[in-house]
Amino acid sequence: MDLLSIPNIKNTHSGNFFLLAGPCAIEGEEMAMKIAETLVRITDDLKIPYVFKGSFKKANRSRIDSFSGIGDEKALKILQKVSETFNVPTITDIHTNEDAAMAAQYVDVLQIPAFLVRQTDLVVAAAETGKTVNLKKGQFMSPESMKHAVQKVLDCHNEKVMVTDRGTMFGYQDMIVDYRGIPTMKQFATTVLDVTHSLQQPNQSAGVTGGRPDMIETIAKAGIAVGADGIFIETHFDPAHAKSDGANMLDLKYFDGLMRKLVAIRQTINTF
What we know:
Layout: E1 18-22, H1 29-46, E2 50-53, H2 72-86, E3 90-93, H3 97-104, E4 109-112, H4 120-127, E5 132-136, H5 146-154, E6 161-165, H6 181-186, E7 190-194, E8 200-201, E9 210-211, H7 216-225, E10 230-236, E11 250-251, H8 255-270
């Protein structure tokens, strides 16, 4: 996939990895704009191609009383405002066929959640919007099997497709990143490593997903080192009080430092 197919993406000739980053969920306009402003400043300074990420709703919840969103259209309009204000592309998850056409009116990239990536009708609905499609690898799937998900998008005459690894579940409450999967999936499509979701610890007894944010830097560095085309990171200025996935998000105050380390690793790799 050519990054230039994503509207308004910048710094594509810098030689850097590209970045999908933002809060797990859109909690309101003020928080989204605050996070976007910081991330745009950092990525512009470091010449990192950047796409703002925010879920307009959350459907895969552990409990029925978990936060699911502030309203579909309200959240999508906030994503649109982020794009227009900062001149950056945006990405959001979709969960139903109807979501595809609705979200495509507001964002530039449609993301298929890992649990749903085998849902053919959903993948086709996203592909047929003509938007770039990001396919999250199921926690239960091998890297090799993602070629079939990619082919579904290509069969819809849409070549704007990428895949994202978010770890593989070998037990009930933890996930492992198998870095052999990065070069494997790069044979099929542009490949991203989702750092923060790879560090989730789901299925906790309290019904709230846990995480290992202390390992974010380790996972991210390794992802760049093995050649990931892009990095996905969820971040928040107050993870402890975030309404979704706070346990595995990166505190926004650490974002600049981490990006500088990752850019240095990428620059080193580019010299070989």
